[in-house]
Amino acid sequence: MTTARRLQPADVLLIEAQRALETVFGNPPAQRPNPAAQTPDVELDAPARRHAAGLMRINHVGEICAQGLYFGQAAVAREPETKQHLLEAAQEETDHLAWCADRLRELDSRPSLFNPLWYAGSYALGALAGLRGDGWNLGFVVETERQVEAHLDEHLQTLPEADLRSREILRVMKDDEARHADNAEQAGARVLPPPIPALMATASKLMKAVAYRM
To answer: What domains does the chain contain, in order, with CATH numbers?
Structure first.
């Protein structure tokens, strides 16, 4: 009978480095079909295409940040159940990442130039949240997902009307984010005290302003 080898710090470091490289520089595949696969791709005029690309770049950055947050939180989670919850949510965020990347290519655009910075900052923030304990860890998930759900609502309202493919992707993403928040609440999330939610919203606004253009 063989037993699983206990991971050493160097092993953990290599695993986290591989995750970071795959997220930021790789092209991690989605496990679910692209929601827009059967939706016609309508030709957009240049201003509408640029606007749609800017919004989808924001959403792609959001998924880069989500990967960093979840992997950072999972790395320090105390309970196996919490860690598993975070890694399962991260896999669905990988689907979102792949779908947004696909749509950016269709719009003849590219991801944010600052993706390595977004990932590193989010990973550090996730690890710091996780060190406070699993209740705070899950509370951070809830607040993050509720804020993402709100900005997806905003994007669904401001996307060019003809951009049906982006719209289908964002609808599924919004449903997933709401479910992640609900699951975290049911798993024992604590409500984050002020001013943390306000600081998170401010950081999100800065990220969106930069990612829309770069």
So the answer is: 56-213 (1.20.1260.10)
* Of 202, 184, 138, 160, residue with least CA distance to 54: 160
d(CA 69, CA 64): 9
Structure tokens at 105: 């290519």
Q: State the CB neighbour count (10 A cutoff) for residue 52.
A: 25
Q: Please report where in the chains the tokens 């969106």 appear, as a residue.
A: 208
> From the CA atom positions of the chain, what is the Rg in Å?
17
Burial (CB count within 10 angstroms: exposed 0-12, middle 13-18, buried 19+), residue 186: exposed
Instruction: Output the pLDDT for position 1.
Output: 46
Q: How confident is the model at residue 9 (pLDDT cuts 50, 70, 90)?
A: confident
Cα 156 to Cα 183: distance, rounded to the nearest angstrom = 24
Say how far apart CA 35 and CA 180 lie, in whole Å. Answer: 18
47: Cα separation from own chain's centroid:
26
Q: How many residues does the chain have?
A: 214
What are the tens digits of pLDDT across the range 72-114?
989 888 888 888 888 888 888 899 999 999 999 999 999 999 9
DSSP 8-state symbol, 1? -
d(CA 111, CA 137): 28
Q: How many helices (H) and strands (E) does the chain have?
A: 7, 0
Burial class (CB in 10 A: 0-12, 13-18, 19+), 77: buried
Confidence (pTM) = 0.91
